[in-house]
Input
Amino acid sequence: MDSDGWKRLLDGRMPGLMDASGRYAVLVPLLWLEGEPHLLYEVRARKLRRQPGEVCFPGGRIEGEESPEACALRETWEELGIPPEQIRVLGQLDFIAHRANFILYPVLAQVDASVLKNLRRNPAEVEDTFLVPLRYLREHPPLEYSYQLIPTPAEDFPYELIGIPRDYRWQPGGENVPVYPWEGRAIWGLTGRITRHVVALSGLEK
Output
């Protein structure tokens, strides 16, 4: 391929996360009740293989050429029975490049509060839902914890081929885990990070 070929290829390509194993999107639902904004959360079904019983936002894997917004709307319909016409997409929040080598796109959206009367939780995926006032989250910062991620190369790692010693000083990583306690539940992990991001952005409102 000549340089013009490379230019055409890159001009029509949206950069992503290198070597990513998957792309995911979640809807971050904002509902106004009595004039006050609330965030709507799900509790994952106990029989799910991954993260059973944990708090999350509706979402899942992006399929094919689907946009993050389209994925988030589709998953919200499949998990909670909220139709797209009752959702107003407000925009994408900061994405997360996860250490497990996937990228997560949170999509903030206003959801008509009337949907609360007719939520159709998919029992295969959703055990429960609950609301938290954004004001409460502003006034109660999360508990924050950190842990180290220590690189551990396999025994057959080719140190000699690369030309580095076996006691090479690998750069460790780190992870910050925000935890929002709420009425016997814990909003944490990626959902906690997204929540903290929304709270921070809400403080910039003019």
In short: The two ends are 50 Å apart (CA to CA). The chain has one domain: 14-202.
